[in-house]
Amino acid sequence: MIDQTVLPETEDYLYFDSYLDVADSITTMKVRGAPAIGVTAALGLALAASKSDASTTEDAITELREAAIVLGATRPTAVNLFWAISRMMSMAEANNEKSLPEFRAILIEEAVRIQEEDVDRNESLSEFGASLIEDGDNVLTHCNAGALACAGCGTAVGVITAAWEQGKKIHVYVDETRPRLQGAKLTAWELKRAGVPMTLITDSMAGHFMQQGKVQKVVVGADRIAANGDVANKIGTYSVAVLAQAHNIPFYVAAPTSTIDLNIVDGSHIPIEERAEDEVTIVGKTRLAPLDIQVANPAFDVTPNRLVAAIVTETGVAHAPYLETLAAAVGDRNSANDIDRS
Amino acid sequence: MIDQTVLPETEDYLYFDSYLDVADSITTMKVRGAPAIGVTAALGLALAASKSDASTTEDAITELREAAIVLGATRPTAVNLFWAISRMMSMAEANNEKSLPEFRAILIEEAVRIQEEDVDRNESLSEFGASLIEDGDNVLTHCNAGALACAGCGTAVGVITAAWEQGKKIHVYVDETRPRLQGAKLTAWELKRAGVPMTLITDSMAGHFMQQGKVQKVVVGADRIAANGDVANKIGTYSVAVLAQAHNIPFYVAAPTSTIDLNIVDGSHIPIEERAEDEVTIVGKTRLAPLDIQVANPAFDVTPNRLVAAIVTETGVAHAPYLETLAAAVGDRNSANDIDRS
Which domains does chain A show, CATH number per domain? Predict the structure, then answer.
């Protein structure tokens, strides 16, 4: 997979022999983006199964449980990680009587299926989302919810590029997204490659351009969506949502149903990862602030459902009341999967 | 004066022999902050007069008019620059019949008076502003409106340190203030030296901490205040003001009356400086974004008066309707000056 920490200067691809290295690549954000880390964890478990020294399926499952704990401890906020791990482990437990070679093949197949489903979901939700974007719109996005963050064409960036490919003349304001600058480094890189007109801005400029009437839509991704539609996403998303509401600009969230966590009633229960201070105080080799000061670095924030105009998933465009529409979206996915597999 | 572009790593002091170098130091932001660049321009004009080769006062005034144009062209938004230049030029024109040595001495005296007045104003407004801060408050500030931005103890940071020195147990959230990071580099440095407890955050975190109930007051400086109380200040200030209102947090502006421009009816007439793209795309030696993309870099934004809970000047705390209270504040200053000089 591509190493996202060295983009946009360098396109470097990483190959893994051990799930421990896969876990490390998630922790250090060589791969990031909620759907992408779900797929990566699934492939990591498939790797653990195929590289396992176990001589029985039972022993392989024991090792896999250990690998699931390690991979699950990498990052706390994106639920896709736990969703993918749980789906892989269910598949493992359901096949505990298979021979070891069969068992390994089943897990590899399931991980690849998770990856392929994400590609399909990206495509479906991008099409649904593109219907919300009008010709001539200026669309603001925060962080990176593009191909790099997913297995396919992306979520928020997928929506944007789908609208562009439909021939809508749009322009994108890209928040640079401090502290890790995923907007400047990744979204700008993706939109440039896709040929979509854009302007890079600092996060602090979003309100100014809204005030000037230059933003018609906001589209962002999500790391976890609670049952009531509260959305955890990259730090700064909440500020963008408040600003959008103050300027009567629709604020859309684009995410696959694997990002919806029906077990969590509202956003207050979503764990927010606190990351290292030097992500804020150091850029490249340059220190930006005095030594020995206190620094906060919450990696995510929670946008309450009242600020969310719609949540776009691969099953369609969900509106409030989200408690009903999100449950229906997850239900639609599950029945679609049942049909696919029947 | 201290070179603000190399803080906080290096404390480097600059000395000038020519007003052209003074002008350059303003353009390149070696000195920045509305009150500070006003004082610097005044001292630059005094330098121009004292270094002039003119043999008559009349010739010296002609040269001074040229210097005023050069210094006035350095940065467009902060009105203190034009206020200080205009005050120096009025003094020059009023003394066009004096001998050259007398003329030079008068201009130096006037520039030093402008500097000393700013020190006094910082102190008065800090005392008035401190009365708005309560024991236990968490105060958020954006950019740097501290001693570095002024001749004295600063405006917004002056208010904060005055409250701290009154024994109020406060804590400050310091927005790093992209793109030039005056919060991380300058405000954090000043507050650390003053021993005021603080936490450095990215601009995108301000809304999150407000949502968590961790911010009780916002205090910022200003680069120009229109007659109706609309406030131009560092880019991102408007976003902070919208967020503060959404969370019922009072948003205060602290600035000397020299920042009030009664000739401008509202904020829409304040010129907003657009600065170089590489301020956004490069930090230190690190490029943050792909090459050849469009980048916006407005250095300021305008916060409408309806979001401003109070404007603190050296004459007191002004509330809406600002059209009346700001005119009164400027009137109070002028009568105070008349008394001082009588």
Answer: 19-123 (1.20.120.420), 127-335 (3.40.50.10470)
